[in-house]
Design goal:
Strands 3, 4, 5, 6, 7, 8, 9, 10, 11, 12, 13 and 21 form a twelve-stranded mixed sheet that branches. Strands 14-15-18 form a three-stranded antiparallel sheet. Strands 1-2 form a two-stranded antiparallel sheet. The protein has helices spanning 2-19, 73-82, 100-106, 138-147, 186-195, 216-223, 240-249, 263-266, 286-294, 310-320; strands at 22-24, 32-34, 54-59, 87-93, 153-161, 169-173, 199-202, 229-234, 237-238, 252-256, 276-281, 298-302, 305-308, 321-328, 335-341, 347-349, 357-359, 364-369, 391-393, 396-398, 402-404. It is built from ten helices and 21 strands. The protein starts with a helix and ends with a strand. Helix content is 24%, strand content 25%. The chain is an alpha+beta fold and 405 residues long.
Amino acid sequence: MKKLLFLAAALSAACAASAQGYYTDAYNPDITRHTGRIAAQRAEFILPEVNGYNVYKADLHTHSVYSDGDCTPEFRVREAWYDGLDVLAITEHVEYRRHEGKMLNFLKGYVPEGTEAINNNIIRRSADERGIQSDLNLPVKLARETARKYGLTIIPGAEITREPIAYGHYNALFTTDNNSLYATDALQSLRNAKAQGALVMHNHPGWRRKSLEHPEFEVKAYGEGLIDGIEIMNGAEFYPKAIARAHARKLFVSANTDIHDATAETYRLQGHSRNMTLIFARNNSLEALREALEARRTLAYSFGTIAGDEQLLKDLFTASVRTKVLHTDPSNGRRTVSLTNGSSVEYVLRFPGQNPVVLKPFSTLMATVGRDKPSTAGDFHALRKDVQKRAECGRNKLFSYIYST
């Protein structure tokens, strides 16, 4: 009996303690709600203004159920906002839509009997005489309708998708009509995109390949000036040699998720921020964003690494980190300096002859410098974590500077 009484008392105490985590609903007093269930909130990724430009976080390569993704364009927009993005491109595959047959089957009461998906996968073959029947502009329209509520800018686009080794994949951005992109000749598809004023980005240039060497198709595409940008980071893949190509051919660089599932699976549940193309623009209008891409004011962010043009990287670091002399030793002139990071970027600082030092986001650390050492962030060349030109990386060489965060 004593044991039963003790158990009852313990259960009563546990229930009382548990009840403290609830509150009475303001509308219906018969409902209690748990205090731990709070509204979803945006994960901000703060970056400073750089050279008079705002830094917009963008994902220029995403997919939904209207090609081969697992969720709707509306969900993509909400997800992007919660992930801290400002700009999103909806880029469904032109030649591949794996859900098309399922959609027709679901809508069998609305379409003529016997209607089948005829051109849902034409990556390795031509479309039949009816051409692509799906409305490839619809996903962009749906995303834009939702984006108005979140203040996100939607860049219209589509992915021109052919066999990856001999041809590759290319995002057409700032398109006006995705339904007119397709041509049997892949090169003509790129020309069609350019003809409507689109910018063309070379997607994941090393995917499924043994090197980044140009196949014949790419030689022609680049030779005609059809390529405006290149992904140097896609998902967890990083293509260091693509930085050299971007520099030599004057292409904008980007890092994108190419997301098909939920970004929570690939990034947030593992403690990572999603891939971002950092766009340095006057504002987040389509005109300003396009001008920034054409001027190649972009950096690529993926899994804690920021890569791209050396000067733009320096400018971002200089704008992010503020230095201040706290004390000067009168006996030897050595100074104690504080470095304050006002951004969401975690920088790794390397001083000559010392171990690396981590400067966490929105934090300050102290360092000492000699009498004749510089004391401004722009001059602290020793504070950069970079990979020097011609530095060996396995068998490959990195031809540009990379800042890891």
